[in-house]
Amino acid sequence: MYYRRNMQVKIYGLRGCCFGIANMILVKRMRETLYSALLLQDISFFDGETVGDLTSRLGSDCQQVSRVIGNDLNLIMRNVLQGTGALIYLLVLSWPLGLCTLLICFTLAAVMMVYGLYQKKAAKLVQEFTASANEVAQETFSLMRTVRVYGTEGLELKRYNHWLDKLADISLRQSAAYGVWNLSFNTLYHSTQVIAVLVGGMYILAGHITAEKLTKFILYSEWLIYSTWWVGDNVSSLMQSVGASEKVFQLMDLLPSDQFISKGMMFQKLLGHIEFVNVSFQYPSRATVPVLQRINLSIRPGEVVAIVGLSGSGKSTLVNLLLRLYEPTNGQIFIDGIPLRELDIKCLRGKIGFVGQEPKLFRMDISSNIKYGCLRNIKQEEIERAAKQAYAHDFITLLPNGYNTLVDDDLLSGGQKQRIAIARAILRDPTILILDEATSALDAESEHNVKGVLRAVRSDSSTKRTVIVIAHRLSTIQAADRIVVMDGGKIIEMGSHSELLHKDGLYARLTRKQTDALV
Ligand SMILES: Nc1ncnc2c1ncn2[C@@H]1O[C@H](COP(=O)(O)OP(=O)(O)OP(=O)(O)O)[C@@H](O)[C@H]1O
């Protein structure tokens, strides 16, 4: 007896261990698959999703799904087997009594199905509300400085509480449903016993079964009902996992962006000839608002082109299309005469250096931040040379650990981050360099940084680069060969600084405004 129980404990332990391992492998695989599916989505996908929501899917949702095999599935299997065994024995003992018990079990199963479906729906809501609460928390923490300065801690707490209240409400409903489910079980369980005693008693009096058989019957019917209850309980938590997993599986099933599927044309060398032919565009999230309209622009290899215009005129969008972050709605972009869509995107991006308006840094040391995304082997001297060209070397050497200083987005000033981003772009030795000058308060420093890079490009005749600079300070672009003026998604003027001043259009007006502001 002792030996059997000991064996049983060991087998339970082994089963628990195996399911634990399977569980761990499942969660790991799910997270890997989901993360890689998300990484390969179009940029427009991220316009419609929030960071908090996606991290919630990767975190708690994947964990929830793993309960399917770690807990529920093995218990369901065990209880189904136990219940089937008990049912066969009951039918053998007395088939009319067995059928009565089976009928009660079916009723229990029906209630269980309704309860399971409710749990599935509730679980989906719980996931959504949890994701929304996460989103609020993540937004608040990342904008903590703004929250502090504007004293909106109470407001943020209210926003967070709104989702917590919704979560509490749904949990309350789940508890009530659990109560109803338990009540149904108890009623049906006791009905079985009453039926067994009443009908069984009559059968004994009629001499169809013995008292011993009836006792066995009551014990086994209890076993069957309890197995049904356990199956029901586990199915309902399985349904919760299924509810939670729906969005996870939907995201996992997303096909990667076309850019990663189609094999584009590889090339060794790029001249840097860029051509926009009749390009129109609207963002998928605002499909009715045209952002670019019939853009025609040809940029020669080695030319420095500045794009200017009022805020919202579509300058950054033009660059987004060139970087193939979005596809034009109409028209085509050609690089060296080849349609952008036909070029291998990785190969192309390897030849483009891009510095955004407000560059973000990764939580790694400065050297790693500068060589980020560079596929070739980079020597420390190359990193330092790029940093010198970007006017970043001096402030980096003043940091506690120089190039090995661990930085993140908060440690450096906006201008310093921009200089590191410029060094990162220069290190790639790009054929096409795109600089989006900052619009914010770091204008003066940003202007100085961008001007420095333009000067370097001009003086370095060995490396021919096509440069596109989006400039807000018009003094930045005096080094440009050509100035393109945009307004309302269209190119309205084009020419050199003096030609445009002579034309007395938008450019001349903007220049006058900026000069007046300086006086
Ligand atoms: N991801 C996006 N989804 C939807 N609309 C967008 C998106 N990005 C920009 N827009 C809209 O497209 C228009 C052009 O924006 P864009 O950023 O290209 O202007 P810009 O000229 O670069 O402005 P700024 O000088 O302020 O940087 C704006 O009306 C903007 O609201």
From TrEMBL:
Family annotation (Gene3D superfamilies): ABC transporter type 1, transmembrane domain (1.20.1560.10), P-loop containing nucleotide triphosphate hydrolases (3.40.50.300)
Provide the membrane topology annotation: Multi-pass membrane protein
User: Which Pfam families does the entry link to?
Assistant: ABC_membrane, ABC_tran
Q: Which PANTHER family match?
A: ABC TRANSPORTER B FAMILY, ATP-DEPENDENT PERMEASE MDL1, MITOCHONDRIAL
The record's subcellular locations are: Membrane
* Record organism: Durio zibethinus (Durian)
GO MF annotation terms = ABC-type oligopeptide transporter activity; ATP binding; ATP hydrolysis activity
Residues covered by the ABC transporter domain: 274-513
Q: Name one GO cellular component term.
A: membrane
Q: Where is the ABC transmembrane type-1 domain?
A: 11-240
Instruction: Indicate what this protein is called per its UniProt record.
Output: ABC transporter B family member 26, chloroplastic-like isoform X2
Top-rank taxon = Eukaryota
Keywords from UniProt, A to Z, are: ATP-binding, Membrane, Nucleotide-binding, Transmembrane, Transmembrane helix
Transmembrane spans: 87-118
Which InterPro entries does the protein's record reference? Answer: AAA+_ATPase (IPR003593), ABC1_TM_dom (IPR011527), ABC1_TM_sf (IPR036640), ABC_transporter-like_ATP-bd (IPR003439), ABC_transporter-like_CS (IPR017871), P-loop_NTPase (IPR027417), Type_1_exporter (IPR039421)
The record lists the lineage as: Eukaryota, Viridiplantae, Streptophyta, Embryophyta, Tracheophyta
Is this entry keyworded Nucleotide-binding?
A: yes
